[in-house]
Amino acid sequence: MPHQTDMPDGTQTNGQRLKRLRMRHRWDQRKLAEATGYSLSAVRKFEQGQRSLDRADVILAFSKALDCHPTEITGQPYTPPDSDHDGQAAIASVGAVRRALLRHGRPSRPTEQEAAEADLNALRERVAAANGHRQGASLAKLGGLLPALLRDLQVAVDVFTGDQRREVYDLLASGYECAMQYLYKLGRSSDATLATERVLWSAAQTEDPLRVLSAHWYDAGELLTIGEHDEAGAIIDDALSGLAAMSADSPEKVSLTGAFHLKASLNYARATDSKAAERHLKKAEEQAELLGRDRNDYELQFGPTNCAIWSVSLPVEMGQGQAAVRRAEQVTQSLPKQYAPERRSHHYIDVGRAYYYNGQHDEALEAFVKAERLAPQATRMHAGVRETTHTMLNSHRRTALFEFGMRLGVV
Question: Where are the TPR repeats (predicted)?
Answer without folding.
Answer: 345-378
